[in-house]
Amino acid sequence: MSGQRDVLPSVIDDDASSSRPASRAQNLRSAPGGGADFAVTISGVNRAAFVAVLAAAIFAASVFFVLTTRAPDDVGDGAAPDPAAVANLPARPDTARDTSGPAPEPPAPPPAPTASRRRAPGASSSAPGGATADTPAPTRATLRIASDVPGAQVFLDRRFIGATPATASDLAPGEYQLNVSAPGYDTHVATLSLTPGERDVRVTFREVRLHASLGVVHKHRFGSCEGTLTATPDGIRYDTTHKEDAFRASLLELDTFEVDYLNKNLRVQPRKGQRYDFTDPDGSADRLFVFHRDVDRARERLKNGEKPAGR
To answer: What is each CA distance from 58 to 63, 68, 123, in whole angstroms?
Structure first.
């Protein structure tokens, strides 16, 4: 009780209150449940302490109210949200989705890559033999033969194909011997190597082709010398180590060009030149005869106005 008397002011009677302001004295209400009524007067200092305590209590109550009414998504990292509260929260505008309709279909997988054929550097888009990338390459050969003389007879490996222009088809790849002949012209003979696909061959009869060569012995009045006779559409020449006997002349500038089969002798005399008597080193007249025949045919064709081959 002594401590209470130190804090609370002394009870004064109404007569002594006339010397103090009426606003500085209050009558305490009787405490509930108490049987006795008492009145205390609170001084100015104690009233300021009471106001401070009351303000602190109101602040504490406000903090408690705010903490207990915060939304679950505002709770710090250490608090777990209430599932029921989370379910009742309104969706955010940027994340709201319409779940009333059917679920969206998953995206379609990307198309599978298609295999592409790579070309070798410098290769064209066409396959050999005229085949394209969309068609298979041929396995058989086709040969077409034409000539500058119509109606020439065509033989392939001694099998008659027909008259020019002629076509031999469905041939197995490989080597073949081609023979084409026309009246009044030398037979054209060639070896062809055919590959799968098509091939064109043109035979030119109206061109003079000649390349004949023959080893001979030239008889002098005193002695002899050996050399080589060579004939082409450009002319005939005799090459020997005896330089004084060597010569060159055009096929159309020969005054004498004849063979003596019985005497096994070939006589050649260029225009305005000496006469040569050639024999075969082996004493045979056959090679002399063949050489004379081929050169004489070429001379006749040149006289008729045909041109040398390649010109």
So the answer is: 9, 16, 95
Assessment of whether the complete model's pTM goes beyond 0.70: no
How many contiguous H segments (helices) and E segments (strands) does the chain have?
4, 16
| Cα 284-241-224 angle, rounded to 5 deg | 45
Q: With beta carbons less than 8 A apart as the criterion, state whether 165 and 223 touch.
A: no
Tell which phi-psi region holds residue 73, choosing left (phi > 0), alpha (psi between -120 and 50) or beta.
alpha
* Element housing 61 (H / E): helix 44-68
User: By CB neighbour count within 10 A (0-12 exposed, 13-18 middle, 19+ buried), where does 276 fall?
Assistant: buried
Q: How far out from the chain centre does Cα 197 lie? A: 26
How do beta strands 207-208 and 174-181 pair? unpaired
The total number of residues shown for the chain amounts to 311
The string over 202-219, giving b where at least 16 C-beta atoms fall within 10 Å of a residue's C-beta and e elsewhere, is ebebebbbbebebebbbe
| Beta pairing partners, 145 | 166, 201
Least trusted range by pLDDT, from 53-62, 182-191, 238-247, 302-311? 53-62
Question: What contacts 98, CB < 8 A, 6 or more positions away?
Answer: none
